[in-house]
Amino acid sequence: MSSWVLPGAEFEELLRSFRHRAWRWECQGTYRQPAEAEPWRRWRAGEPDDLTWLRPWLDQVAAATRAGRLVARVRVFQEPPTEYQLWQLDVGRANVAAGEDVRVLTESRARALGLPAHDFWLFDEARVALMHFEDQQFAGTEIIASPGEVTRYRNWWGTACEHAVPLLAYRHDLIGRRR
């Protein structure tokens, strides 16, 4: 297996340089990224958010999709969703508006389908970036390029995409159930 650990800056370059498709499997109930701390606090307090903190990502997604490249993710949601995941349902609308295909799969369904319990990106169906976290904060990425291993992740990608629902539909259904 070919692998190495990349710090954040080098991983960011992978996110900019993919050629056709970048797909994320996101399965933690909560992420504690420093850039999200204040926006999350504002959301919890019912204060408005101009999404300035998210603008670089949204611009990157919009540029990629304008160039014909796909940026997508499936988020695994607990039942009921964590407070962080509820926040992501609100914030995620901006991701979708920027062109990102964001979908949701419940944790019980993901387990039943045999999908992994670790986060990763799949780039151009040729490289996998396993994401490592410490105390719910991003700590680095391990790159896998071994064809056999990458095939396993591609299969997981296909299964997840087949069973996940679009974020906005999940959000609409969840809000409807909570009324």
Automatic annotation (TrEMBL):
Superkingdom of the source species: Bacteria
Any Pfam family matching the protein: DUF6879
InterPro entries: DUF6879
Residue ranges constituting the DUF6879 domain according to the UniProt record: 9-171
Name of this chain's protein: DUF6879 domain-containing protein
Organism: Saccharopolyspora hirsuta
